[in-house]
Amino acid sequence: GFDNWNVLIIVFTEMRDKLRKWREDNHRNSEQIVDVGEELINEHASKLGDDIWIIYEQVMIAALDCSRDDLAWTCLQELKRQFPGSQRVKRLAGMRLEALEKYEDASKQYDSILQDDPTNTAARKRKISILKAQGKSAEAIRELNEYLEQFVGDQEAWHELSELYINEHDYGKAAFCLEELMMTNPHNHLYCEQYAEVKYTQGGLENLELSRKYFAQALKLNNRNMRALFGLYMSASHIAACPKVNATVKKANVRYAAWATNQINRAYQVSHAMCCVLLKQ
Amino acid sequence: LSYFCLFHSGAYCKMLLHAAKYPHCAVNGLLVAEKQKEKKKDSHSTPILCVDCIPLFHGTLALAPMLEVALTLIDTWCKENKYVIAGYYQANERTKDFRPNQVAEKVGARIAENFSEAAMIMVDSTRFTMGCYEPILAIYDHHENKWKCRDCNVDSFEDWCEAQKITSALLEGRSYESLIDFDNHLDDLRNDWTNPEINKSVLHLC
């Protein structure tokens, strides 16, 4: 009756809104996207209007993640039919080839996009992803550096490069990438905190002091960043324990560490955490 | 001389759930054993029973500060529960890559400093199935500053049939969606890295 119809509409809008939120947050919860998206496409396609195309794209990529080539293929065919000759759809076809580990075919697909449009950043990034998938880290790093010379404002690329460097234990170069990101995003607490972690990992008194400063900066930008709070405690404690530091520096860092301990304990109390931890000095 | 390492079903299952939750990332974590009261003369013939698993991180594993925090907190928790950190596990980002890397060797060596029979475990994702028909781990022992691979088969388990049944059931039921690792804990302190809910599910299925 009337009640059932209302419930169906609510369910449909909830599903559509969930997919939108996951799209906006760039969430890689592929199994959930496939669950919700497949049902939406199969049962409610007519109600989606023009949203359906971006949903086909989102569900296709999630389907590739879940080895659902059947679903990915269906979505791709719908998009090909609606947008013949589209570079964006060509890229999706390339991603499907990547998922099937047909890297040479995928690469050719991206090359053909780049022939028509040499500034197509998506195709260039997919080519670098192929190198990453094949374990060719050095080449991926080289290509990404070349890409960034041309597209110096691409934050996603700088972040990807910092991660590639970290995985290669090249912390100096990772720090450089994060410095670029901090310069263009001075209010982003995550970049500060990641930079501090890299400096800490590099080690040595100078890097420890830098790491402490940037953990503190991250906390200023977001006082609920637990990694920054723990990092402040760890870096200050290590500096205080270092035989090379003078009494003034030691005293200051003991104070920072004590403050951090206090804040950490309060945070645990506030969150009613199960594990009772008291960090001892 | 190889140190015999036995896995409790709950420990094995949490390792695989962690890898299943983040199929596109590298993951790592710790294994804990019950602290032995006395060290007998022929203690290497007594198997070390890995009773629990603490999932640590997903994504970038090669940074030091949060790892140090985790080791400190978990060490404290171990002491309170008469456990000892007995092993380290890692699943690499790329499925086909199941060799230990620098991170695995470093953390493994660090654990071996406090526990000489420490094991380093690599998860072989190429053999990862829902049915869990075979153990998919490679176990490495620390000998003279080198890591030597030892075969992991059904004898490495307290009860392989139970481990297989439980792990498979929890994978089918998508329990990995609620698995908490240390990264999740740092995102929200209310997230409990001891995973009491999953422990309950494991007990139910035993």
Can you summarize this structure?
The complex is a heterodimer of chains A (281) and B (206). Chain A contains 14 helices and no strands.
Describe the protein.
The complex is a heterodimer of chains A (281) and B (206). Chain A is mainly α. Chain A has helices at residues 2-24, 30-44, 51-65, 69-82, 87-99, 103-116, 121-133, 137-150, 155-167, 171-184, 189-202, 205-221, 226-241, 247-270. In chain A, helix 11 packs parallel to helix 13. Chain B has six helices and seven strands. In chain B, strands 1-3-2-4-5-6-7 form a seven-stranded mixed sheet. Chain A binds chain B through residues 28, 31, 65, 133, 135, 163, 166-167, 169, 196-198, 200-201, 203, 211, 226-227, 230-231, 234-235, 267-268, 270-275, 277, 279, and chain B through 23-24, 59-60, 62-66, 68-69, 72-73, 76-77, 94, 96-97, 102, 174, 186-190, 192-194, 196. Chain A: Belongs to the EMC2 family. Chain A: It is found in: Endoplasmic reticulum membrane. Chain A: It comes from Oncorhynchus kisutch. Chain A: Component of the ER membrane protein complex (EMC). Chain A: Its main location: endoplasmic reticulum.
Mean pLDDT of chain A: 93
Q: Name the pair of protein chains with the most residues at their interface, and give those residue counts.
A: A-B, 32 and 29 residues
Beta-strand content estimate of chain A = under 5%
- Give a quick account of the main beta sheet of chain A: strands, pairing sense, barrel closure: none
Order of H and E elements of chain A: HHHHHHHHHHHHHH
Order of helices and strands of chain B: EHEEHEHEEEHHH
Low-confidence runs of at least 5 consecutive residues of chain A: none
Overall 3D shape of chain B = globular
Overall pLDDT of chain B: 91
Tell how many strands the DSSP assignment of chain A holds. 0
* Category by helix and strand content of chain B: alpha/beta
Instruction: Give the C-alpha Rg of chain A.
Output: 24 Å
Helicity range of chain B? 25-40%
**What is the terminal-to-terminal distance of chain A?**
67 Å
Mind describing the biggest β-sheet of chain B? 7 strands, mixed
Poorly predicted residue ranges of chain B: none
**Tally of DSSP helical segments of chain B:** 6
For the record, give the distance between the C-alpha atoms at the N and C termini of chain B, rounded to a whole number. 33 Å
Number of helices of chain A: 14
